[in-house]
Amino acid sequence: MQGGFLAKNPSVLWFLLVLAVFTVVATLLSQIGIGAVSTSMVKVLGRTLCLALVAVAMDVIWGYCGILSLGHMAFFGIGGYAIGQWLMYARTEMIVAGTLAASPLPPTALEVKNAVASQIFGVVGTSELPWVWGFAHSLPLQLAMVMLVPGLVALVFGWLAFRSRVTGVYLSILTQAMTLALSLWLFQNDSGLRGNNGLSGLQNLPGLDHWGQDFIAVVFLWASALALGLGYVFFAFITSGKMGSVIRAIRDDEARVRFLGYGVEGFKLFIFTVTACVAAIAGALYYPQAGIINPAEVAPIASIYLAVWVAIGGRGRLYGAVIGAVAVSLLSSWFTGGAAPPLNLGFYTIRWTEWWLVLLGLSFVLVTLFFPKGVGGLFDLIPSRKERKE
Prior knowledge:
Radius of gyration: 23 Å
Number of strands: 4
Helix content: 55-70%
Distance between the termini: 31 Å
């Protein structure tokens, strides 16, 4: 990495240092360390890092390029479904193979495949393996699908939208409509993805039962931290160079950038597709830690929450997106998990599991009114080294 890039972006080194310290400390406190933090909490921390990664992607497309996409959690969900297919298929195949091995005659590959299909899809009234599971038997192919499917969807959708020069609120509505259509399709039993039941048991890694959930949770924590670190550096590199200047100019005055001879549609399409792929990677790491994915995870409201996180943290600054996602995710786990004690007002008792969304909405309004640059904007109040010398 060039020294010039790091010199112009000292926040990148600080972020990587904080991320490394956080990951090491969480590991030492986990059940494979001194045991001060439960395995479920380690999984919460790992999932939080995944949400921070998709928030950074959202910040690039919205905060830097000016495209308010209300569909990036759909790509997040596609990544989760893609890896979930392999996890569920491979796990079921191991169980079925072990059961059929007790029969007098060894089972054929077709018998195993049919038994796997019956086990997975019996809950939706069928015993056939849908076409969308064509690559579920292969981990390399399914990992490729994590990138290819959301990338292709984003590429086609973006090409059609940007070619038609749809901008502003109309583009936001289109991305939300895309997300809603995907969610409604996934809810159908004939979608091939088990409808409302979704994919479950994703926390069980095939062939790695001897590891135990304590160790697996830490592995995913490190994988999530690595993905967030690489994603942060990648997007920092993009937004700090010439491309960063162009996409910020598109955000501020698209017509003038087009007049100067830049291919605005090409830049927007590249950013839209790349951020969609990164969101899918985050989803592929998130759902094995969550253990289950269903169509509700890709509903339009999820993408709206994502925009709220970025707005609270401060859009247009990558670390702001991380701050917003981490803060809201951890607070959500605390309030909705029952850890926050009820607040007795005498005439009424506030139970935070019921009032969390109200509190989140109120926080969004207050930050928008009094801190338009978000929580990350508070760092602007710290005088620079040059200013201190003067």
